[in-house]
Amino acid sequence: MAQLGNPTNTIEVLKKYQFNFQKRYGQNFLIDSHILEKIIEAAEVTKDDCVLEIGPGIGTMTQYLAEHAREVIAVEIDKSLIPILEDTLSAYDNVTVINEDILKVDIAALAAERNGGRPIKVVANLPYYITTPIIMGLFESHVPLSSITIMVQKEVADRMQSGPGTKDYGALSLAVQYYAKPEVMLNVSPGCFIPRPNVGSAVIRLARYEKNPVSVKDEEYLFALIRAAFNQRRKTLVNSLVNAKNLKAEKEEVLSALEKLSLSPMIRGEALTLEQFAALSDFLCKKGD
Ligand code: SAM
User: Fold this and answer.
1) What number does CATH give the domain 7-208?
2) Class of domain 219-284
3) Ligand 1 binding pocket mutation candidate from 6, 32, 37, 76 (most atoms within 8 A of CB)
4) What's the pTM?
5) Phi, psi (5° rounding) for residue 201?
6) Which residues of the chain have pLDDT under 70?
């Protein structure tokens, strides 16, 4: 099977198997070898690595990964792609394809089984409709991983690496930055895919911290607090938190916590750093008191 990552061979495979694109699965296949090489380079894949690829499609990036990694595990939801993958990946004995919804896979168990619990790397051109649940699932389920290098919608990449006071800053920025150091590696235009997506794309690398930059009494409470703070962006932080019943935060308590942190009672969530959210979370959380 010829190498994919160019329009001619991609169209030939699609025709051979009379493949119908499924819009609901966010199928946009890469057809630019230059971009594929840059992704592999950004992910720093070596022959020591066990790589998880989410959504291999017809196996384009999988071929590149198989050349560079020790082992590749590729999870694809669309069963009509499985016979195609058997064909396009027939030259490689270090690839395992799993026909499953990534959100239902126990990735921690997979990493334990395939990599002895050592950190894996995730490399993927993600289906954009589930970018956030995939990333949060990887972090929150404490899968041992060293980095996640992914193609996402450009706007989502911007959100992940934004800081306080910017319009893109929000719950996703804070959640990602709690676990990893984000770095946008390259922008990718719609012309690099078949079919062309309606949005610009970017490759972002999230390098997992060995130790999180802040520590809190209760992680779950911190994330509930962050979500509440951005739920009603135009409201003051005090009102947003008091309105969120699951936080069980009284107005007086929130005001006094803000005072202790030398923050204005009129401040909005979008102005707080991760460190300030962590401190506020420990003030308000009743766990362990
Ligand atoms: N990696 C290929 C490439 O770069 O050409 C295809 C990328 S395409 C943007 C996203 C892929 O993810 C599709 O093959 C799609 O079928 C698959 N996919 C969508 N939802 C999925 C899910 N929940 N679990 C696993 N794969 C999924």
Assistant:
1) 3.40.50.150
2) mainly alpha
3) 76
4) 0.93
5) -125, 165
6) 1, 287-289
